[in-house]
């Protein structure tokens, strides 16, 4: 059960007024340059904490520590059961400290406290799921057709040092999603959080030490992506990059990783279609379509931002989603009744309001919302109105580009074939939704959509056991699910002549 109110004081032990440091080789240290940057609370625009700003030298130190811990350190001697035990201890610590973690993300990212507290279950479940996998990694004995007696078998080995680069839209959960499979596989890690939300990944670093994870196994280096992220992606001592972020940065990472041919997995952007048929249960589809975008103020990669509605119900549906949207409570992320907080940063505010202007200029009609949200009690915060644009055409910028804000583009369609074709007519392929009571429709559309996830009569469900990721320019590789851990493993074939 959640308490109705949680005091921001819960983070006072962590935010003690001193700069937050980098975690390198089991110690919290300042950046080599001595530089810091401000972590901002987007609900007020005020400085929350000073954070050590890493540079290339700090990445060198962190990678060297991760290399030592992997190549000769204690981590490589941990048995699967020991890795599992450590991850389970970390899960318990995360569970026990989650009020503080949730408050850090609420203050740093602006996500409503009720939502950040609800993320506990997923963070803990991810750690326990991958802890389970630590003891299931195995090779195979494979028959071969060589002359004579030759035994062949495979061994799975950890890939080595992993560079994990995460976005700001769910900092703690993203950090756990990278860290848990890497550690379960026996890898070591250098984690690079995003500058707009650097704090909770540092708290995760503290909990890793408390759980008994040896020095150098988990390192956390904040700093500008163009410097610290780029250095990590290019580093010859890093064996794999696991990245979540924008498609443009993903492309830069692939280029940077070419130097030592790192393995790269990418979870990138999206412009996901959410398709509502006229036979759908509209009482479920109306909130479903709205919250498929407005959750986390639209700052979710798989948000169902292109809302295709069958023509016969288009006007009614737009009206009903507008009515629902007007009732959403936008405001202070600290208020347990708030449903939408601010955007993460001033940069993001400029970006999203730019798209709102572009939509209007290109002839879309804001059925609800359409501008920045300004009021005395929201002063200084980066708030925008949750917005539904009607009369959108496929060619408009708001229907083509990822906005990463609370903006829905509603588009009418006639047939299932047309909805699939137009749904697929983008370079992305991350999420997708179908709302229908017709089973054949559901199957036909689910089969036709080129997307990593298809949600039928629901949206955005996630589970550690079910893979998530993108087709096309939404990425490569899948996170979660039984095969995710393979991305952190090498396969060695051993041949033994026994005859
Ligand atoms: P971003 O600008 O690509 O940043 C992501 C991360 O990469 C940040 O840590 C960033 O650091 C770092 N970075 C920036 N430039 C880099 C470079 N040249 N080399 C290496 N790292 C670099 O994305 P964002 O604005 O944080 O996040 C929003 C994007 O992430 C959206 O496109 C969204 O769709 C995508 N996303 C995808 C998923 C998914 O699972 N598919 C989930 C969430 C978000 P700094 O921020 O410190 O510069
Ligand atoms: Mg912040």
Description of the structure:
The chain is of the alpha/beta class. The protein has two domains: 4-268 and 476-493, Aldehyde Dehydrogenase, Chain A, domain 1 (3-Layer(aba) Sandwich); 273-463, 3-Layer(aba) Sandwich (Aldehyde Dehydrogenase, Chain A, domain 2). It is 36% helix and 18% strand. The protein has helices at 56-71, 80-96, 98-109, 113-118, 120-133, 171-185, 199-210, 225-234, 247-257, 282-294, 314-326, 346-361, 397-400, 416-424, 439-448; strands at 22-24, 27-29, 36-41, 46-52, 150-158, 161-165, 188-192, 218-220, 240-244, 263-267, 273-276, 306-310, 365-368, 387-390, 407-413, 433-435, 455-456, 475-476, 489-497. The strands form five sheets. It has a seven-stranded mixed β-sheet with strand order 13-14-15-12-11-16-17, sandwiched between helices. Helix 14 runs parallel beside helix 15 (439-448). The longest helix has 17 residues, at 80-96. The radius of gyration is 23 Å and the shape is globular. The structure holds NADP nicotinamide-adenine-dinucleotide phosphate (NAP) and magnesium ion. Magnesium ion binds at residues 39-40, 42, 108, 196-197.
CATH fold-level topology of the largest domain: Aldehyde Dehydrogenase, Chain A, domain 1
Count of alpha/pi helices: 15
* Main sheet: strand order: 13-14-15-12-11-16-17
Q: State the helicity in percent bands.
A: 25-40%
How far apart are the termini?
Answer: 65 Å
